[in-house]
Amino acid sequence: MDQNLSGYKIFYEVASCGNISKAAKKLYISQPAISKSIVKLEDGLDTKLFHRNSRGVTLTEEGEVLYKYIREAFENINSAETELKHMKEFNIGHIHIGVSTTLCRYMLLPYLKDFLKAYPNIRVSITTNGSSQTLQLLEQRKLDIGLIAEPKVRRPELRIVHSRQIHDVFIATPQYLENLRSICGENANLFEEGNIMLLEPSNVSRQHVDEYFKSMNITPGQILEVGTMDLLIEFAKTGIGIACVIREFVEKELQEGTLVELPLSLPIPSRNIGFVYNANNTSKSLESFLSIPTQMDK
Question: What is the C-alpha separation between 84 and 80, in angstroms, rounded?
Fold first, then answer.
């Protein structure tokens, strides 16, 4: 844009009023200043924009064309200002969250229920990915916030809040373990003899368990791999094997006795789950989202 925006504003008001004197009063500037600005704009565009007469001014054919676009531009600016004011007054906004399907079900949904109750006008978008993919999107500023397993190493601009400790455990139905021991003996090595059900190798939780296996010199005899922890839990309930899941997600089943936890000589190291966001990519909607208390804080 070769011309100064203030020059277009003056042109817009003069064209709207059809009179330099009225435009001067509306803009709180002198008539000579307005006339000078119009001349400068016409010179810059090398186009005559107004016909002058004793009653005021009228637009030339070229002026009509320019006024059409300038009017639309300033109407859009006014609409934008109104919308921003509306967003501020009524907390209208948008937040984009990244989360795995399992964490979405067990941790995000209860949190969202309280958030949407407090801020019903903020639109929420959810992208389901594993923790590593979500972390990449956060670093690229393609997400506002992610609910992920806290990475061992993360960039300094990433902040984690509402952190909660989780525990990876091996679970099975009592009947499956009884059948396995009746076939292989009471002292059978369950990891060697049992059907061990794990997440896929690319999953962060699976990598954490693989590190544990390596440190304990455990080599499962048979492995069944699935894509989500929800499936692991459901497969375990059917009694077809031993699944590695997060204890906090099967507390009800463990209390009821439909699933039991296998005792380990050394527990799998605990991990932290939390909301992670880029400190260089904050917004009013994100601040509102982070303001909601959660069970993870307790």
Answer: 6
Query: Is 98:147 a contact under the CB 8 Å cutoff?
Result: yes
H or E stretch covering 222 = strand 222-226
Q: Dump strand ranges (E) for 67-210.
A: 93-99, 122-128, 145-149, 158-166, 168-172, 195-199
Per-residue exposure over 124-140, b if at least 16 CB sit within 10 Å of its own CB, e if not? bebeebbbebbbebbbe
Contacts of 256 (CB under 8 A, 6+ apart): none
Per-residue pLDDT of the chain (298 residues; tens, 9 = 90+): 455 788 899 999 999 999 999 999 999 999 999 999 999 999 989 999 999 887 889 999 999 999 999 999 888 888 777 666 655 554 568 899 999 888 898 889 989 999 988 888 888 999 998 888 898 898 888 999 999 888 776 678 888 888 889 999 999 999 999 999 999 998 889 999 999 999 999 888 899 999 999 999 999 999 999 988 999 999 999 999 999 999 999 999 999 999 999 999 999 999 999 999 988 888 888 988 988 876 554 4
Alpha helices in 119-198 (DSSP H): 131-139, 174-184, 190-193
pTM value is 0.65
Amino acid at 111: Y
198: nearest Cα among 211, 216, 189: 211
CA–CA separation, 44 vs 297, rounded Å? 62
Name which of 137, 125, 268 is nearest 198 in CA terms: 268
Determine the Cα–Cα distance for residues 106 and 101; give it in Å rounded to an integer: 9
